[in-house]
């Protein structure tokens, strides 16, 4: 009944084009003048892991006699079925992170354990606000510590060709603020995570079975469509069924692409020197899978991202610090659904040629006495770590760090010797 | 009514409007029904008054001029190319572009393309889409805009065939009468150039008309059939095939002036008596003498007040707003009000929001993708400077703006849209990643759902691992998907 279109057809966009809109790398378009004067040209890339990384599952205290008691058969061990990678005579790294292990052995990666922001409650939103704002408690704030740190550095010449960056519509809190930032978006959709789908399905199953059925069917079809090649980070695993081999390929590809491209920008002589990325999905309440499940996939993706950063930075890797932080840790014990709940202390990872690595930095609190009877006790203030990096790597002044970058943090001294 | 006032306000906004914006639930909580009725009485409501928008005629002439210019440019280009190829000296490079630029250096890179302006028909379409979307975002409740969208879908045309006219059509034929008489809307629709082109009546010629006799061309039944089947009395109702054929003859001559024939009035409606089938015609048991254009108007006037039309429209209206299978009681109320008021659409809208059935029905309707997108943008309060991502999202979700798959329009039942749920999650995820860091999920839940949010939904949102995830879950929550 309708004839051929004589007027022209609306360009039907691919999914890829459609999803171009969200910015991922947020970067500062200047060089730090003081560092340049010292003959250095430092790079700093901050990676925020949203959802709260289980620091104990990433870097396990295998030498702590209470470790196995707490985690049971979920405990990462040097001699377990999936052997952990030894770091020193007390800590071992999750085997999903061979690149980080290699960097650690090359003294280009350091791990800070039992670290936490000053936040002691367990809300993701507030926790991320504290992590990114640099304030000592949650509250209304429009600016992040990284941006305020940039404001405290005397800039040398502006960098960044106009071609390389677009101004993003919205930036994450950690880089929001008066110092101008640019954003770049990887041309790939970050798929709705397993975790988001699982949460939504759970809600639907309890409240709207018709929607649950519809979503399950679609996800099932999507899994079939992708079978054999790119698998399927999107389809939720059926209870009791192992993940297909190569699971998480999409997540891994996304992490690597975003991180690698960010590093390539930052490596250029006219590229930005400071940037930030965020990766989601770390809220592992059920079926955490630290050894061969979901968390192992995420850690492997993060490890791949580190490798991509190292490659992408090229010659600038020697001048680089990558700081990987998360809002808080998770419970020391496994919960009733083979996962972990919101906790307190966790790890911070530092990698890069400028890092004085090859060590786990921890004032280890032990696992006998847990914070609130459930969480790893915080013994290192994460702000001390970040202040140390900002001071020694970018040459942000002590006064600015104490008052402006991390307000009211005068008592938290910058941790020395992380860089150099 | 068992709902508390705020729950009723939230229901009013989702079911009859475009969903809450920050604060609207509280604003109308004292009298949600009164707020809906008041919107119907607001002066100028439903109209769009953007002086930059083209009328249908202006759009048609602009497109005609644009095509003429392109054609001329192509002719010139071809002539120059032929001239170049006849010169004995070979051109520096064989590309046509180089041939046109006499002083182009051979090693020069191809001239950088200026950001390409979309063709004129697409520019008009985008402009119209933006104005329409902004109206939906800006509406206090959105009841009248929802009515516009409903009637526009009932009387749909397809932009695939009439791209530059789709927006003007909705403004001129639908909005102008959305709170007026159905008979007037029906006439405005069936005489509108967009509809006459879309359903081929512009080319339909009475076989015994002067034009038909001369050219040996004839009848096209498309528009006549759809008027009966879709626009008025409804399929399998009171008409037969001879009624369709006769009605098609009645409206022969209802056509559109070609811009090349009349540069001043091109693109506008005209009754061309030379195409009109002479003689009386019988449609649904009544004979209509040949009174030229009035013959068709008389048939439409009778169709507009037919009880089958009342029932058809009442069923569709109730299905759109209230339930996939609306209660016969509600359909009866709407149908009676339609007939009692001579097809007054404002009275019908009032009957809808004053019927207890329209409020008491369970919230089982799945929002159509376009409704869901608008309500999402209203809930987050995010400005929409560029309409294209919105249109792309609608395409992805299977409801491209003004491009229904068939003259029946987009379906209005959950079964048709359930399959798209996974794509909705993609869109929600994308939107949330873009704006989720800026909004407070729990405040947004209160503003968007108020008391409608179940404890499970609140907990799911509260426990999300990040604000973007919380926002995506809110937009995907059953209470936000359904109304």
Q: Describe the sheet with the most strands of chain A.
A: 9 strands, mixed
Residue fraction in strands of chain A: 5-15%
Distance between the termini of chain A: 74 Å
Which secondary-structure class do the elements of chain A indicate?
alpha/beta
Describe the structure in your own words.
The complex is a heterodimer of chains A (420) and B (483). With 420 residues, chain A is of the alpha/beta class. Helices cover 32% and strands 15% of the residues of chain A. Chain A starts with 14 loop residues before the first helix and ends in a 15-residue tail after the last helix. Chain B starts with a helix and ends with a helix. The model of chain B is unreliable at 89-113 (pLDDT under 50). In chain B, strand 3 and strand 4 form a beta hairpin. A two-stranded antiparallel sheet of chain B has the order 1-2. A two-stranded antiparallel sheet of chain B has the order 3-4. Chain B has helices spanning 5-16, 24-28, 32-41, 56-86, 96-100, 120-138, 143-154, 159-162, 166-174, 182-190, 193-198, 210-215, 222-231, 241-250, 293-304, 307-321, 328-340, 345-354, 356-360, 369-380, 388-396, 414-418, 421-435, 441-449, 455-462, 467-476, 478-481, and strands spanning 254-256, 269-271, 281-283, 286-288. The longest helix of chain B has 31 residues, at 56-86. Chain B is built from 27 helices and four strands. Classes of the chains: A alpha/beta (420), B mainly alpha (483). At the A-B interface, helix 1, helix 6, helix 8 and helix 9 of A face helix 6, helix 8, helix 21, helix 23 and helix 25 of B.
Describe the structure using short key phrases:
heterodimer, A: 420 residues, alpha/beta, three-stranded antiparallel sheet, 14 strands, 32% helix, globular, B: 483 residues, mainly alpha, two-stranded antiparallel ribbon, two-stranded antiparallel sheet, 4 strands, 2% strand
């Amino acid at each position: 009944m309708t004839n051929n279109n004589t007027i022209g057809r609306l360009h039907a966009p691919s999914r890829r084009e459609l999803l171009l809109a969200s910015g991922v790398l947020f970067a500062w378009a200047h060089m730090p003048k003081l560092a340049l004067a010292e003959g250095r040209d430092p790079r700093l890339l901050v990676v925020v892991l949203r959802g709260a990384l289980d620091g104990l599952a990433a870097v396990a205290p295998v030498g702590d006699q209470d470790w196995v008691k707490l985690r049971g058969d979920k405990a990462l061990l040097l001699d377990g079925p999936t052997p952990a990678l030894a770091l020193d005579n007390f800590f071992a790294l999750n085997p999903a992170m061979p690149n980080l292990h290699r960097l650690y052995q090359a003294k280009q990666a350091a791990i800070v354990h039992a670290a936490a922001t000053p936040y002691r409650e367990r809300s993701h939103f507030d926790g991320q606000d504290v992590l990114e704002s640099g304030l000592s408690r949650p509250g209304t704030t429009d600016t992040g510590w990284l941006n305020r740190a940039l404001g405290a550095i005397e800039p040398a010449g502006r960098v960044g060709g106009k071609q390389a960056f677009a101004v993003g519509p919205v930036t994450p809190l950690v880089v929001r603020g008066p110092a101008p930032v640019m954003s770049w978006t990887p041309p790939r959709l970050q798929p709705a995570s397993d975790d988001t789908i699982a949460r939504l399905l759970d809600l639907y199953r309890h409240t709207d079975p018709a929607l649950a059925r519809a979503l399950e069917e679609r996800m099932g079809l999507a899994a079939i469509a992708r079978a054999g090649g790119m698998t399927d980070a999107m389809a939720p695993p059926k209870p009791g069924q192992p993940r297909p081999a190569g699971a998480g390929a999409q997540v891994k590809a996304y992490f690597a692409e975003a991180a690698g491209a960010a590093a390539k920008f930052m490596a250029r002589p006219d590229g930005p020197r400071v940037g930030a990325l965020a990766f989601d999905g770390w809220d592992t309440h059920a079926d955490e899978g630290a050894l061969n499940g979901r968390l192992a996939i995420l850690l492997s993706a993060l490890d791949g991202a580190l490798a991509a950063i190292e490659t992408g930075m090229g010659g600038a890797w020697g001048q680089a610090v990558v700081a990987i932080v998360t809002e808080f840790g998770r419970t020391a014990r496994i919960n009733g659904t083979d996962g972990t709940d919101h906790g307190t202390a966790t790890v911070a990872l530092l990698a890069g040629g400028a890092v004085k690595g090859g060590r786990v930095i921890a004032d280890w609190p032990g696992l006998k006495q847990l914070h609130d009877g459930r969480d790893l006790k915080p013994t290192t203030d994460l702000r001390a770590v970040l202040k140390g990096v900002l001071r020694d790597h970018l040459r942000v002044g002590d006064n600015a760090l104490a008052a402006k970058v991390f307000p009211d943090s005068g008592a938290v001294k910058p941790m020395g010797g992380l860089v150099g | 009514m068992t709902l508390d006032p705020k729950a009723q306000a939230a229901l009013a906004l989702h079911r009859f409007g475009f969903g809450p914006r920050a604060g609207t639930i509280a604003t109308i909580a004292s009298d949600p029904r009164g707020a809906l009725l008041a919107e119907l009485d607001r002066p100028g409501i439903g109209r769009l008054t953007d002086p930059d928008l083209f009328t249908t005629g202006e759009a048609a002439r602009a497109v005609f001029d644009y095509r003429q210019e392109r054609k001329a440019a192509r002719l010139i280009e071809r002539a120059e190319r032929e001239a170049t190829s006849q010169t004995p000296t070979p051109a520096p490079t064989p590309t046509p572009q180089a041939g046109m630029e006499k002083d182009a250096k051979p090693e020069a890179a191809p001239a950088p393309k200026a950001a390409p302006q979309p063709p004129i028909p697409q520019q008009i379409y985008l402009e119209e889409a933006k104005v329409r979307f902004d109206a939906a975002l800006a509406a206090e409740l959105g009841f009248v805009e929802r009515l516009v969208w409903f009637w526009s879908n009932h009387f749909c045309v397809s932009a695939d065939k009439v791209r530059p006219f789709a927006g003007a059509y909705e403004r001129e034929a639908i909005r102008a009468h959305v709170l007026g008489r159905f008979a007037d809307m029906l006439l405005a629709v069936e005489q509108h150039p967009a509809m006459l082109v879309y359903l081929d009546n512009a080319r339909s010629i009475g076989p015994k008309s002067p034009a038909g006799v001369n050219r040996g061309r004839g009848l096209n039944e498309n528009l006549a059939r759809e008027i009966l089947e879709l626009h008025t009395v409804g399929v399998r109702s009171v008409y037969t095939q001879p009624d369709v054929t006769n009605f098609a003859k009645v409206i022969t001559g209802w056509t559109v002036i070609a811009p090349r024939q009349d540069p001043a009035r091109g693109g506008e409606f005209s009754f061309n008596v030379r195409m009109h089938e002479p003689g009386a015609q019988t449609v649904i048991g009544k004979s209509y003498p040949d009174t030229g254009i009035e013959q068709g108007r008389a048939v439409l006037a009778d169709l507009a007040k037919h009880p089958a039309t009342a029932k058809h429209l009442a069923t569709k209206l109730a299905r759109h707003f209230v339930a996939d299978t609306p209660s016969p009681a509600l359909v009866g109320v709407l149908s009676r009000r339609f007939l009692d008021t001579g097809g007054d659409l404002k009275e019908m809208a009032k009957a809808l929001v004053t019927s207890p059935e329209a409020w008491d029905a369970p919230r089982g309707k799945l929002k159509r993708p376009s409704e869901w997108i608008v309500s999402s943008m209203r809930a987050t309060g995010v400005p929409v400077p560029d309409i294209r991502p919105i249109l792309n999202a609608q395409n992805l979700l299977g409801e491209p703006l003004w491009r229904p798959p068939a003259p029946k329009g987009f379906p209005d039942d959950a079964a048709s849209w359930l399959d798209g749920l996974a794509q909705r999650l993609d869109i929600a995820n994308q939107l949330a990643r873009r704006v989720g860091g800026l909004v407070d999920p729990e405040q947004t839940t209160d503003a968007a759902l108020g008391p409608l949010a179940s404890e499970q939904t609140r907990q799911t949102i509260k426990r999300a691992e990040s604000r973007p995830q919380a926002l995506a879950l809110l937009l995907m929550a059953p209470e936000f998907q359904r109304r």
